[in-house]
Amino acid sequence: MADDAKPPFTGGALVLLTAGVALATFMEVLDISIVNVAVYTISGNLGVSRVEGTMAISAYSMASAVMQPLTGSIARRFGEVRTFSSSVLLFVVFSSLCGLSRSMPMLIVFRLCQGAVSGPMVPLSQTLLLNNYPAQRRPIALALWAMVVVVAPIFGPILGGWITDNYSWSWVFFINVPVGLFAFLITWSMLRDRESKTSVVKLDGLGLFLLAVGVGCLQFMLDNGNDYDWFSSKMILTLALIAGVCLTFLIAWELMHDQPIVDLYLFKRRNFAIGVLCLFSGVFSFYGGTVVLPNWVQETMSYTATWAGFAVAPIGIPAIFMSPLVGRYQHKFDMRLIITIGFAIFASTSYWMAHINADISYFKLMLPRLVMGCGIALFFVPVNQVILSGLPPEKVASASGLANFFRTIAISVATATSTTLYTHRSIFHHAILTEHTHTDARATTEWLSRIQQLGIQGKSTYAALNQLVNKQASTLAINDVFWGFSLIFGFAMVAIWFAKPPFETTAKAG
User: Which of 153, 182, 352, 441 is buried deepest, with most CB atoms within 10 A?
Assistant: First the structure.
């Protein structure tokens, strides 16, 4: 029986379904950031370099990015419930194989497979919640989904660091087994008789090829560009050219195809286009700061990896409590106003972070991140409502898959951009500061004199001076990065007002 003939879940059944779907989503999103922390340990245990070790990350992100836009086509062919449940079960299988890997090539292959089956999980989790929630409670479903997607990557580094410090790196993958099996059993047992309508979809072979090659090259370039000094590397330049050509032809081909593998016509809908633009801008700036801050506190403040995670983690606390409240009451306000307030919080806290110094305490470092967490719920929850507003039920899976693809790409672009900008601005500020630390400068001579009085003599004094310059240069660099993010959030505050009410979703009626 099709799921549109079934009434929505209520009470305990609704709670159980939400738990199953949310855990599957949490598991998939967490897996990206949790492995990032373990990559150094994995590389050492498998006897490869750090650059080779990052291939395990790139393989997953490439495959996942390729599969996300295909979610709508796959779900139409096999059904939403069957596709989601199969993805969860296969994710568990490949997670186990990743944990059992004893060589880097083996791990890379299984990570590639793991990423491929994970692609439909996040988009379809959103679709399944909307289809099985009562109409009046769908905003809460979106809020709970948004909370999981945003919070999981924040806690990933802490959990990954704790597991690798206290257990084997294999448990980074093995923990997915009980979580995934529980999610599979819940979703399949509750939804197998609520399958969506299926239809035979003609395979767009050329579109699939262009998508796989274009997105794969783009994702690999973004993941590894900083390690290879970007376009000074022939490999990175070649990947960029291949990605540009393939994605350009993909757009042209999909717009002409009668059964496109990626529904680009969704961008003709104003709310979808504006919503995705704001989602990309917000995720780019939010995750850019989340990536670069741990690097700075470890290099400059001498934090351990675990404490670097604790410096970032407070941002998730307000999101956990506020997301359900925003989902419940957002319909009482103009959605654009709520999102604008969220972006304003992001912009102001980024401006706040642009004035931190190298002597800042943990509390003062944590406080702006805590406040920024309020902006997550006010931005990420309603912007997904804007993206899906007015779409017919059969378009929701495709729209969610395409929106999540841009979310994934935004994270990759943010990681590449923020780390590169941080590195280059550190070099720039180091050069400027060095010009003012010559031995004729009064401040320099006074500092050297104090150091020598402490018993540090000869070359060691200049090494200490260079260390101080590095510390200040990296601090000025991270200030520059957060300045830039503050400006982007300001742009998003304006862009969201081009969306047009009403913002109700039109998922299958209960």
Answer: 153
Looking at the structure, do residues 176 and 268 belong to the same domain, yes or no? no
Listed in sequence order, the residues at least 6 apart from 374 whose beta carbon sits closer than 8 Å to its beta carbon are: 318, 319, 322, 342, 345
Whole-angstrom distance, CA of residue 98 vs CA of residue 110: 6
Per-residue pLDDT tens for 381-438? 788 888 888 888 777 777 877 888 888 888 878 878 888 888 888 888 878 877 766 6
Any domain includes 243? no
Establish if 229 belongs to a structural domain.
Answer: no
Residues 6+ apart with CB under 8 A from 46: 53, 101, 102, 103, 104, 107
Same-domain check for residues 284 and 141: no
The amino acid that residue 258 corresponds to is: D
CA 248-250-255 angle, to 5 degrees, is: 105
What are the angstrom distances between the C-alpha of 475 and each of 94, 302, 360, 364? 41, 13, 11, 15
Which of 176, 203, 230 lies at the terminal end of a domain, its last residue?
Answer: 203
Evaluate whether residue 492 is within a structural domain.
Answer: yes
Domain with 89, as residue range(s), is: 1-203
CATH of the domain at 103: 1.20.1250.20
Pick from 480, 467, 222, 236: which is nearest to 353 by CA?
480
Cβ burial 398-432 (10 Å sphere, 16+ → b, else e): bbbbbbbbbbbbbbbbbbbbbbebbbebbeebbee
Structure tokens at 203: 């395979």
Q: What is the pTM of this model?
A: 0.78
C-alpha to C-alpha distance for 459 and 419, rounded to whole angstroms: 31
